[in-house]
Amino acid sequence: MPHRFRARALAPFLAAAVLAPAGCSLGGAGPGRDVSAFDLTAGRCLVPPDEIAPELSDVRVVPCDTPHTHEAFDTVRYAAADGTATDAVHPGPEALTSFAEAQCARRYEAYVGVPYAQSELLLTYLLPSVRGWHHGDRSVVCVVTTTGPSLTGSVQGTRR
Fold first, then answer.
1. Model's pTM, two decimal places?
2. CB-side neighbour CA atoms (13 Å) of 33
3. What is the C-alpha to C-alpha distance for residues 88 and 71, in angstroms, rounded to an integer?
4. Mean pLDDT for the chain?
């Protein structure tokens, strides 16, 4: 059974999306291909869905030279506030959100080349859902995005 993520967005594209067990796609018509959100790695460029769905399992990836608005820049396994890994109970949306915001912001500069607070771009993330957590999903996917014109290249090292 595919796993699920809950996306907590600081930008519209991933707002309230959750990786679903089957069938929901983040991709819309057009270039690119749908891939499992669990296959997202740094440097994968993404296009927004035609419709925002509360759950998803796939995302539309495109070559980074194709117009896009989002790019995965890291994947971080969840750890409790005390730094310990946790496999027991889903920590809840507040704990996951706090973790994702801190970890993604911390890793942002290494990828984009400028601290997040100084960037013209935004960050967002995908979070494990409760159901996904029970199937072993523990990772947050960090995503950089723009609310301005589409990107036509990777943002890695751009200092934007």
1. 0.79
2. 5
3. 30
4. 79
